[in-house]
Specification:
By secondary structure, the protein is of the alpha/beta class. It folds into three domains: 224 residues, Rossmann fold (3-Layer(aba) Sandwich), CATH 3.40.50; 188 residues, Rossmann fold, CATH 3.40.50.12780; 178 residues, ANL, C-terminal domain (GMP Synthetase, Chain A, domain 3, 2-Layer Sandwich), CATH 3.30.300. Helix content is 39%, strand content 21%. It has 22 helices and 28 strands. The strands form seven sheets. It has a five-stranded parallel sheet with strand order 4-3-5-6-7, sandwiched between helices. Helix 12 packs across helix 14. The radius of gyration is 25 Å and the shape is globular.
């Protein structure tokens, strides 16, 4: 299925690279804020003119230090303006930026440095510099580390570890002698040049380096910016990892449309910074929206009885008419009055508290979002939509047009994108955003991209009668029960994670007679419950094993089972038994990716005794697991895990049988 044709590939004629767009924005919006950063509790701003000055000086300084076209520049740090400036500065020289996750351990970082052959590393602070130095002997290609934050950096080798500002000072000296050099550098690049290498999350093995051109990122981002009517008056908060494709492409959209990028003070202050900035454009993966909803539900549990009743009443009103009002459908007079009152008393203050009061458009992607969570936000009047994409597609494959937003689908093909379903039920696409290649991996490139440009997504899906794409699950994760019906674990797991006390879920059923589940409780939500009910506990493990917590989770699982009755594709996937894990699944333990996706293969191997116990009908099972701490220490945690049966509901097929 093909979408609308591309009408305007770039923000303007000849603007086919980010450095060129930067200079264009200086001409168009010289005094408009381009970036903000909160530091020490104070917002600092840079106009497009000032951002261009910062980038120009750094680019000239990098070139003076030996950076050449085609070199790789590893970038590791939080959402700081200088990290974003580095991307464009490297591109201006003709080099290729390679962002990586700031919470990567040294060995993970070593893999990306070695694989990308990075010569320069731009690190945010001492912590990141130390991780690079730890693996320096195994990464001989690295010639220079440049740091942003000088705190704690005294005593390091000045010939190898250099201050960001020192490099900019060198660039300023060069600019004084050659004032047109930066402009000349930017004119050398073109749209089909490589712009960036972004590494995948590595759910099934080592991450792959996805090579993207300027045409890939700019044409795709610009088209969706035009589709969504984004302008220079919009605001976005960039708080997700800079190594993640989603963050990069929303930054590219900011360049294309000319709007302001805001960087939070820290991960811990994102919520407060959201409230202060009040972004108009917002992006978050489902786990973030799940976390926000969990916090709301926790706060309501702590509220006075009158407030709880008022919240429950008006949320019922929102559930009934909120989405219809958002989509400008007709609503009865009394319902409109109730909704307006609810907006004054509940919805408006709630949106302001979440920092979503000014949102005109919000997107979620990365994995499927539970329908209940999706409808919750839309019922409040927040125009949240789903998009479907991947790193290899330059994010956008499908988007949901206004007025055609359904929780069970991911929309229609984006402008310029063709989508089809192959004979195996796998989704394939072809678009201007189709990636150039996997870096140093021709075999994987050939296996993923056909000679005529079609890309295998690895996702199973189908088109519904309204032309919208529905994604079932990762194709490799979709299986079959022994009785022949489809097993799609992610759909069930998303339903479980709607409940505030469930942080993560992993379900099993492929090649089995029934569906079983592992549960991770949400320590914040369940800890809050324990405090209110005077339940003493000393650890996650102790709280997870509490009988009342098991009862709470059991009720939620049974609610999910009942809700599955309405889905003819998955009504047979009801959960028969579950357990609550004795530890939280953790990226440092290899159980999750850095983007919080479950590594199912590792879970299946590491917790095989628990899986077998679920299917054997055991009531209890002993497990011992190795865990890694942030300081590098390793320990073992063990316990006797309780396994619980839950109620399932007869489907129409079962009744007929």
């Amino acid at each position: 299925m093909a979408a609308n044709e591309i009408t305007q590939p770039y923000p303007g004629p000849g603007l086919d690279t980010l450095p060129k767009i930067l200079l264009h924005n200086v001409r168009m919006y010289p005094n408009r804020d381009a970036m903000r950063e909160k530091e020490f509790g104070i917002w600092q701003s840079w106009t497009w003119t000032e951002v261009a000055d910062e980038i120009e000086r750094f680019a000239l300084g990098l070139q003076a230090r030996g950076l050449k076209a085609g070199d790789k520049v590893l970038i590791i740090g939080a959402n700081r303006p200088r990290m974003y400036w580095t991307i464009v500065a490297a591109q201006a020289v003709g080099a290729i930026p390679v962002p990586t996750y700031k919470d990567s351990v040294a060995e993970e970082m070593q893999y990306v440095i070695e694989h990308s052959e990075a010569r320069f590393v731009i690190a945010e602070d001492q912590e990141q510099v130390d991780k690079v130095l730890e693996v320096k002997d195994r990464c001989p290609a690295v010639e220079q580390i440049i740091f942003d934050d000088p705190r704690g950096m005294k005593g390091y080798d000045d010939s190898f570890v250099v201050d960001f500002e020192a490099v900019q000072a060198e660039g300023a000296d060069i600019r004084a002698k050659q004032p047109d050099l930066f402009k000349q550098m930017t004119e050398q690049s073109k749209g089909d040049d490589i712009s960036i290498i972004l590494y995948t999350s590595g759910t099934t093995g080592k991450p792959k380096g996805v090579v993207l051109t300027f045409d890939n990122v700019i044409i795709t981002s610009n088209q969706v910016a035009l589709l969504d009517k984004l302008t220079e008056n919009d605001e976005i908060l960039c708080y997700l990892p800079i190594a993640w494709v989603g963050d990069h492409f929303f930054v590219v959209q900011a360049f294309c449309a000319g709007f302001c990028i805001n960087c939070p003070e820290s991960e811990e202050t994102v919520a407060a910074d959201m409230r202060e900035i009040g972004p108009t454009y917002y992006f978050a993966p489902p786990r973030v929206f799940e976390g926000l909803l969990t916090n709301v539900q926790i706060r309501m549990e702590d509220a006075a009885p009158f407030k709880r009743r008022m919240y429950a009443y008006f949320m019922d009103v929102a559930k009934k008419v909120g989405i219809r009002k958002l989509e400008n459908q007709s609503v009865g007079f009394m319902d409109s009055v109730k909704y307006a009152l609810g907006n004054f008393l509940v919805y408006g203050p709630l949106k302001d508290a979440l920092g979503l009061g000014r949102i005109k458009l919000a997107y979620t992607a990365g994995e499927a979002i539970g329908g209940e969570i999706f409808d919750f936000y839309r019922s409040l009047g927040i125009n949240i939509k789903q998009l479907y994409g991947q790193t290899e597609s330059s994010v956008f494959i499908t988007v949901q047009p206004d007025g055609e937003v359904y929780p069970e689908t991911v929309g229609k093909p984006s402008p310029g994108v063709e989508v089809k379903i192959n004979d195996d039920g796998e989704v394939m696409y072809r678009s201007p955003g189709t990636f150039h290649s996997y870096y140093k991996n021709d075999k994987a490139t050939e296996e993923t991209k056909t000679p005529d440009g079609w890309v295998y997504t690895g996702d199973a899906g189908f088109f519904m009668s309204n032309g919208h794409l529905r994604i079932i699950d990762r194709a490799k994760d979709v299986g079959k029960f022994n009785f022949g019906k489809m097993f799609a674990p992610k759909h069930i797991e998303n339903k479980l994670k709607f409940f505030p006390h469930i942080q993560e879920a992993v379900t099993f059923g492929d090649g089995r007679d029934a569906c079983m589940a592992f549960i991770n409780i949400d320590l914040g939500a369940v800890g809050n419950w324990a405090e209110r009910n005077n339940v003493a506990y000393a650890s996650y493990q102790e709280l997870a094993a509490h009988p009342e917590v098991y009862n709470m989770v059991k009720e939620s699982v049974e609610q999910v089972n009942e809700s599955l009755l309405g889905d003819e594709l998955l009504s047979h996937s009801q959960i028969s038994r579950f357990l609550i894990l004795h530890k939280e699944l953790d990226a440092d333990d290899g159980e999750l990716t850095r983007t919080k996706k479950v590594r199912r293969k590792i879970i299946n191997e590491r917790y095989k005794p628990l899986i077998e116990a679920l299917y054997n009908g055991d009531d209890q099972c002993f497990i011992e697991t190795e865990v890694a701490f942030e300081d590098g220490r390793v320990a073992k945690i063990s316990g006797d895990i309780k396994l619980v049966d839950v109620k399932t509901f007869a489907t129409d097929a079962n009744v007929a049988a």
